[in-house]
Amino acid sequence: MLFYSWNVNGLRAAAGKPDFFPWFSKTGADFIALQETKADPGQLSPELLNPENYLSYWASSKVRKGYSGVVTYSRKKPQDVSYELPDPKWDKEGRLVQLEHQAFYFLNVYFPNGQKDEERLSYKLGYYDAFLRHAEKLRKKKPVVVCGDFNTAHRPIDLARPKENEGTSGFLPIERKWMDKFVKHGYVDAFRRTRGDTEGDYTWWSYRAGARRNNVGWRIDYFFVSDELEGKIKRSFIDSGVLGSDHCPVGLELDV
User: How far lies 113's CA from each of 67, 145, 190, in Å?
Assistant: First the structure.
């Protein structure tokens, strides 16, 4: 099965650019998971709501329009679908779509950004912990595939300028410590599993100062699989040449 994930930084804006629909149709993916859609389904065109050969599942923000949001497109109808984390403290921002299939759960998640202030950083860390608890409950039934924008670069190799960003949310020790905990619980970073410690592989670049042109980026978009599926990973990749957002798509192929 082939999976794609992409933070589109506004689905309507991304879809208005010339490369979006050709990219979508050429992926051939079984699942396409998008984050930061910034839209309710009622605001979208039929070709975004019901693209040919796909079913779509949406989570939208309940706190304000044009904020957050995720969608998962699936070629096959899942056994079950759920939205958001089960705790009401974390279910209002349109951050999670969960599909249950025969062999696994597929979670498309857009984790909070902690850069605004200490309150949002605390919210992000709380969401992280709530998500891990939820994933661990699911995993008692069947393996888990997780994709999305984690809003944290895990290791110094995952961003171009680690020293300069040690005090920036997205690379704070406390955020990276949670990523360590996630991995220790048995979740495998599919890209590092297949590619090793390669340098210069990023998924997000600031719009400022020619960051993308100069590849001054961060790797904050991931595929993780619970370790029951580690041996099923065929490849994992970053499509850094795909434009239309300040992020680029990432992909995973599993032999399941």
Answer: 12, 22, 22
Confidence at residue 65, expressed as pLDDT on a 0 to 100 scale: 87
What's the pTM value of the predicted model, to 2 decimals? 0.97
- Token pair of 169 as six digits: 């949310």
Q: CA angle 19-109-45, nearest 5°?
A: 40
Which residue segment(s) compose the domain that 36 sits in? 2-254
- Give the C-alpha separation, 146 to 138, whole Å: 12
Set 149, 158, 189, 201: catalytic member: 149
Assign residue 118 the CATH number of its domain.
3.60.10.10
Q: Are 251 and 4 in contact (CB under 8 A)?
A: yes
What are the C-alpha distances in Å from 16 to residues 22, 26, 28?
Answer: 12, 17, 21
- pLDDT tops 90 at residue 210: yes
* Rounded CA separation 157/219 (Å): 9
- Total domain count, the chain: 1
pLDDT (0 to 100) of residue 246: 98
Dist CA 237 CA 250 (whole Å): 6
* Over residues 132-156, mean pLDDT: 98
Burial bucket for residue 223 (CB in 10 Å: 0-12, 13-18, 19+) = buried
Q: Render pLDDT for 37-46 as a digit per residue (tens, 0 to 9).
A: 999 999 999 9
> Is 40 annotated as catalytic?
no
Dihedral pair phi/psi, residue 178, rounded to 5°: -65, -40
